[in-house]
Design goal:
The complex is a heterodimer of chains A (416) and B (155). With 416 residues, chain A is mostly helical. Chain A is 39% helix and 1% strand. Chain A is built from 15 helices and two strands. In chain A, helix 3 packs across helix 9, helix 5 crosses helix 9 (198-219) and helix 11 (249-259) packs across helix 15. Chain A starts with a helix and ends in a 17-residue tail after the last helix. Chain B is α+β, with helices and mostly antiparallel strands and 155 residues long. Chain B starts with a helix and ends with a strand. Chain B is built from one helix and nine strands; from the N terminus they run αβββββββββ. The longest helix of chain B has 33 residues, at 2-34. Chain B has one helix at residues 2-34; strands at 51-52, 58-63, 74-82, 92-99, 104-105, 111-114, 120-126, 133-142, 145-154.
Amino acid sequence: MRLAYRLTMGTVLYAAIVAAVGSAVPGSWSAEEQQQVASLRLATLESLPPDPSNRVSGDARAVSLGHKLFFDKRLSLDGTVSCATCHDPAREFQDGTPLAKGAGTTNRRTMPIASTAYSQWQFWDGRKDSQWAQALGPLESPVEHGGTRTQYAHVIATHYRVEYEQLFGELPDLREAPASAGPVSDARLRSAWSRLAPRAQDEVTQVYVNVGKSIAAYERLLTYGPSRFDVFADSLALTGRAPAGILSKDEMAGLRLFIGKAECVNCHNGPLFTDQHFHNTGVPAVAGLPDDRGRAQGAKDVRGDEFNCLSRWSDAKPEQCSELEFMVDEGAELERAFKTPSLRNVRERAPYMHAGQYADLETVLDHYNRAPVAPAGTSELRRLRLSARERRQLVAFLGALSAPLATSAHLLEAPR
Amino acid sequence: MRSKGMLRKGRVVATLLIATFTMGACGMMMHHLAHGRVPVPAESEFGLNARPTMNGLYSVAVVSAAPLVKGRLQTVRLEIADQQGAPVSGAAITVDGGMPQHGHGLPTKPRARAASDAGQYVVDGVKFNMGGWWELKFAVSTAAGSDSVTFNIRL
C-alpha cells in the first residue's frame, strides 16, 4: 500500500513538473535529434520482462527472503562478506574501487545491479544468462564470498527454514552433508563434495539454486528512476520544444554531442543507455592481471554453465531460452569485448571500465576521443576529435542522468 | 633583401602547413578506412521488398509482421522464387549481416527453416543492437545453384 501510494504520488508530481516546464522557451532540436532524445526516455522502457527461468521471480515472499540473504554475511567463508559488501546500496550497489574485494581481490570491477533484470547477459563478459545464475557465481568464488553450497544449505536450514519451506517445500536432510563442500577450486572442499552421493549433491544444489533465485527476486526490484534528463526529454517529446531550466547549456550541448558527433548513442542506446551487448573499445589491459578475453571467454562459459537457461535447474522451457540458442559464441569480434554498461547514475560510480582503469569520467571521455589501439582483438572506436570543451559538455550531460532508484526505500537498506 | 627573405620564410611555412594538413587528412582517411567507413547505399537500395540475388538465380523478399526494431529477438519470413517466379522449396539458407560502418556482424546467429508453404522460410533469432545502417544477408542454395542477397535496413 505504502509503496503504491509513494509511486502514485511520485508519478503525479513528476507529471506536474513535466507539464509545468513544457511551455518554456523554444529550442532548436531537429526532428532527428528529437527522435534520438525520445528513444532514451526512461518512460519508453517496457515493464520488467518476465524471467521464466525463475519461478519465484515476482513472489513477494522470495523478495523478502532474497533481501535478507543479500545482506547476510553468514553466506561467506568467514562471516565477513555479503552481496552488499561489494554491491553497497549506499553507493549505487557497487564499491567504488577498481577491483572488487571480498575474501580476496577479483580481476574485475564490481557492476551495479539496478535494472539488470533487463539484461540478457550478466557480468562484464556475459558468462551468466539470468540474475539468479549470476548471484551464484560470487558465492562460490574463492576471492568473493569464498564459501560452498553445502555451507549455504546449512545456513538456510539453521536460519531460514520456515521462509524457505513456505516457498520451495521441505528442505532435504542435510545431516550427511559436510559443513563445507562444493565444486570449488579448493581441492579439499572439492574432494569432500565428490564423496557426497549424486542424489545428496543434487539436493544441496537445489537449495543453492533457490538461494540464487530468491536473491534475484529481490534484485529484480532494483530499477533506475527518472532523472533530470528524463524531465527534459519527456517535455521535449510532449511539446517539441526544449524546456528551459532543466538542463544547463553545457548539459544540453553534451546531449547533442552524445547523440551526434561523439557517437555515444551507438552503443549506449535505448532508455537504459545500453545495447546490452559486448564491444571491444580498446580499454587498456591492467599490468599484473591475467589476460582478459572478455566475451570470447564469457560466451563459452555461459554455454557450459551448469545454471544456464537450458540447465535442469532452470524453470524455463527450452523454447524460452532463445537468447542462448541464437547467441554468437565465436568470432574475432568477441575478443576482449565487454558489456556496455548502463549510463544511468554513471557519475555516482567511479572508477570506470571493466577493471576500473579510469578514475573519472574526464579520463573516460579522453579514451573515447583518442580511440587507442586495443591490447588484443580490434577496437571498434575511431578518433572523435572532440575539443576539451566538448568533452566537458559530455561529462556535464552524464551528470544529468543521476537519480534515486525507483525502488521502495526499505529495500535499499539492510532488512530490520 | 629583407622582403625576399620574409617571402622565402613565408613559403617555407606555407609548404610546411600544407604538408602537415595533407598528412593529417591522409591520417584521417586511413583511420576511416581502417574502420570500414564505407558509404551508405542509395535510398532506393533500402527496404525488405523482393530483390534479385547477386547472380540473378533467385528473387528473395523479407516479410516482417511488425516493423523491425532494436534490442529484441525477432522472427521474419523469407519468400524465395526462381527466375520464372515459381516458389523455391528445399533451399538451404544461411544468414549473415552486420553494420559495415562499424565493422561488426549481427549480435546473434539467426537460423532459417522451411515453412509449410512452398517457397516460404522462417528466420528466427534476428536481432539488432544499434541504430543505423544494417545489412541482412541470405545465402540461398539449391540444386539449381548458390546465390546470395543483401538487404539494407535502417533502424
